[in-house]
Amino acid sequence: MNDATKLDKIDYIFKLLDDWRKLPSYQLERRADIYFACYLPEIMMDFLSKEDDVGQNKINLENIIPEFPLKKSDCISGEKNYTSTKVDYAVFTQSKLYLVELKTTWKSLKAKQVDEAVKRFKGVPENNTMTEEEPEKAIDLVRDICVIRHSPNSDSKYKNLIDRLSGVPGIKKIKANMKRSDNPEKAISGVEVSQRDIEILYILPRKPGELKNGEFKENRKYTSIEKKIYNYKKAGYIHVITFADIMAVLDKIKETDCLANSFYSVLEDWQFEPE
Fold first, then answer.
1. Which tens digits make up the pLDDT trace of 218-265?
2. Which residues are paired to 148 by β-bridges?
3. Closest alpha carbon to 228 in 204, 197, 199
């Protein structure tokens, strides 16, 4: 297969994605996330440079865990809950853990989920008053994964996840060889993590209130979820990377990377809902 044929195939994949996203039940996020993941190291390094947080950090795919499990709270009755929700990507740097959610449409953003994340990891409920509970740290999430791994009937893939976590920056020690029949709580003592804070990061098609002509709606015309994202970002509780930010990263490499070139070509249209 020559280069032209390869490029045709890549362009055809993105043409299908762009065409099918216009259909009622097609979920672009599930199909396109692998392309975002391919360039997530470059995207994150660009983001960290703007945040003046590059330091000794070097992001590569080994630093990134997809579908990272977040253990649900135990039951009010005291019964242990070993189930979890998933965040699209966990990105580990030397000092922080970024929980990254990818949204290819603003319509898939749920206000309740955003509020729960800000409350859990920043200690800030919807009314912006601090809670009595301390926000969770990176070590809490890693410990939770150990607890899930050693709980009854856990998926064997959790051992693979723990093995993978053992090699990411900032995790100094993680006990991964306990038998599943052991008391899950024992796993907690075998974890040492240098990251302290958790950062919430959304990859979104566009900025809150942004219009196609590059201008912005009047604030009073923002949707409720646009207002929430705008206010949380302004307060520093969340971070946002837009498709335009990603296009700026791809623009630097698209001349020599045919996948980046094809991806770049559709992102401009993906910033807004299909007509």
1. 877 889 999 999 999 999 999 999 999 999 999 999 999 999 999 999
2. none
3. 204
The structural domains of the chain, with segments of one domain joined by +, span 1-57+100-123+200-275
Calpha distance 59→57 (Å, rounded):
6
Joined together, the tokens standing for residue 239 give 């971070």
Three-state SS for 102? Answer: strand
Determine the Cα–Cα distance for residues 107 and 162; give it in Å rounded to an integer. 34
Token pair belonging to 266? 């559709």
The pLDDT assigned to 105 comes to 94
The answer for residues whose C-beta is within 8 angstroms of residue 168's C-beta and 6 or more apart is 62, 63, 65, 92
Label the pairing between strands 191-193 and 171-174: antiparallel
Predicted model pTM? 0.88
The predicted-structure confidence for 20-54, as pLDDT tens digits, reads as follows: 999 998 999 999 999 999 999 999 999 998 876 66
Residues 29/21, Cβ–Cβ less than 8 Å = no
Q: How far is CA 213 from the centre of its chain?
A: 28
